[in-house]
Structure formats: structure tokens, C-alpha cells
Amino acid sequence: MYTSTFTFAKRDYDDEFHALDSVIAQTAKSIPGYLGEESWENPATGLISNVYYWETLEALQRLIDHPAHIAAKQQQARWLDGYQIVIAQILRSYGDGGISHPLTGVSRSS
């Protein structure tokens, strides 16, 4: 399993941003291997972080190669004041079951 974490500083969003963001979100959710996502905001810095969970790198690559995602990357400077992306492999995920999480109940095969 993998994560793709998109951390960014936001600028002003317009209708085009919201439309493109909606298409990308629906596309991600429709890809076999998409496991879920979480979003976080740091009030001290104003940065926002979206963490997407994927069963395989191939599933993540399908989103990266999607035309809407490519269009958003080409125009990101209109809506963002900088960003960082981290792709990581998940070695383990566990909890006490007290909170809902995209990986709850997902087992990792060795």
C-alpha cells in the first residue's frame, strides 16, 4: 500500500478550480485500488495536506496520468502558493478501532 501526500499553500480558488478539483476527486474514487483520503490543515502555517491511500503504485499512476490531473498541474500556480508531494510505502497500519480511518480493516499482504 502507498500514500500520496499533497501539501500546499492555498491562494484564491475560482469556479474552474472547483470544477477541476471535483473531476479529480471523482476520478480518484473510481480507480480500483483507491482506498480513501484524509485532509489536514495547520492553522499556524496555513498549509493544507491531503493524504491519499492506494493499494498499488499503478492505481496512483492512473490518477497522475488522468487529463484532469495533468491540467491541474499545468495551472497550479493560479490557485496555489507552493506545494510539496510525498509518495510513501505503508509498512504497517493499526489502531484501536476508536476512529474511522481509510485503512481500517485493510490488511497488507507480505
Short key terms for the protein model shown above:
110 residues, alpha+beta, four-stranded antiparallel sheet
Secondary structure tally: strands = 4
Which word captures the global form? globular
Number of contiguous helices = 3
Domain count: 1
> How much is the radius of gyration in Å?
15 Å
The main sheet orders its strands as 2-3-1-4
> Major beta sheet, specifics?
4 strands, antiparallel
Spatial gap, N to C terminus? 11 Å
Q: At CATH's second level, what is the architecture?
A: 2-Layer Sandwich
CATH class: Alpha Beta
The run of helices and strands is: EHEEHHE
CATH topology (fold) name:
Alpha-Beta Plaits
Mean pLDDT: 90
DSSP strand content: 25-35%
Structural class: alpha+beta
Helical residue percent band: 25-40%
What is the oligomeric state here? single chain
List the uncertain runs: none
Commentary on this structure:
By secondary structure, this protein is α+β, with helices and mostly antiparallel strands. It has a single domain, classed as 2-Layer Sandwich (Alpha-Beta Plaits), CATH 3.30.70.100. It contains 3 helices and 4 strands, in the order E-H-E-E-H-H-E. The chain has a 4-stranded antiparallel sheet. Helix 1 packs antiparallel against helix 3. The longest helix is centred in the first third of the chain and has 16 residues. The termini are close together.
